[in-house]
Amino acid sequence: MFLNTAASKILQKGRQKSPFAFIQKFGYVDVYMKWKKDSYYDSIEHITKSIELKSIISLKNCIAQDPNGCIPISAVSKRGLEMGVSMKVARFLRLYPSIFEEFTGPEYNHPWFRLTPKAVEIDAEEKKTYQNCREDLICRLKKFILMSKNNVLPLKIIRGMQWYLGIPDDLLQKPDVNLDGSFKLVKMEDGLEGLSVECEEKLMSVIQKNAIKRGVYSGRTMESLEFPLFPSKGLRLRRKIEDWLKEFQKLPYVSPYEEFSHLDPNSDIAEKRLVGFIHEMLSLFVEHSTERKKLLCLKKYMGLPQKFHKAFERHPHMFYLSLKNKTCTAILKEAYCDKSSIERHPILRIRRKYIHLMKESAVILKNRRFSNHLVHGENSVLDFDLDTADGREIPKC
């Protein structure tokens, strides 16, 4: 009798829960995968040079925004930390003579800096690109905010991710004026000023759109959808992990724009939703990559789990972790292995042009060092020839 009663209680509890609740717990495997270096992703220039390029463009904007098109070093010498410059700002500017031109100022012989003609040309093209692609950039910002828990993010968080989203400064300086009517400035619970978005349209992620094009997905809620995988050469998974990954691919797909509070945070489906969220977010970014530590500020507002960074390690067929430049950068593999699947960010072409100027600077500095070496070498020979037979030096005129 007792067994029958206990069994009936379990069945009643089971009926009260949705069938989906049982699926969520299915097949969780504590996956650990050894990191493997991949020279292809470690050598993508606009990723490896992103940190210094960000500082260069910040300084470039300070000069370009000045009415005279030039500034004294005192205007930026104390803003190094703000602009991500880890050395003296003057020294940093002198590292890029193809971008910044130094000259003596009108007073006190202070060094002044202006943009070179090539930098001025690219800056004008950059402004034109921002103007022509304004709607696309606003759409990317809208999607980024709509992935948050309550469709609202603090302005300071958005500004912190501004470089990755490729958003110009003027859009966020006066968002109530520069953005469309779907954006609203709000006060958040923690006292921060936030930017919210209202959108009745059902948004679809890049993964969903590509799957519909291939005819393998109809767009229904909780429909199964497999992620595109791009294994690195020589990266082999253990049999247990391969079996888990096959089952993981068969699980229902939850869009990053859909409600997810009903998911068990410790389930494989919650992890699949997290992986889809990261994929969509990186697809919106200019370089389809980001420093992993930069995502920590998003945890609270995006509803990310405490150890969300493990998703990068558990899914090496989708993400690559680059350890270049003494930081850990997460890269979306699909953006570089199947370039037709993810739309290229309009501002990426401009950043590549700045990188080309950075490479020109390296050549200029190398030629200067070579010229100085020749000059010093010639002087040493001349000094030797000036010595007379009795060891006395001939005086210079």
Automatic annotation (TrEMBL):
Top-rank lineage group of the source organism? Eukaryota
Instruction: Output the Gene Ontology cellular-component terms.
Output: mitochondrion
List the InterPro entries: PORR_domain, PORR_fam
**Which ranges carry the PORR domain?**
36-361
Pfam hit, one? PORR
GO MF terms, alphabetically ordered: RNA binding
Please list the GO biological process terms of this entry. cytochrome complex assembly; Group II intron splicing
Q: Which PANTHER family match?
A: PROTEIN WHAT'S THIS FACTOR 1 HOMOLOG, CHLOROPLASTIC, PROTEIN WHAT'S THIS FACTOR 9, MITOCHONDRIAL
| Protein name (record) | PORR domain-containing protein
Taxonomic placement? Eukaryota, Viridiplantae, Streptophyta, Embryophyta, Tracheophyta
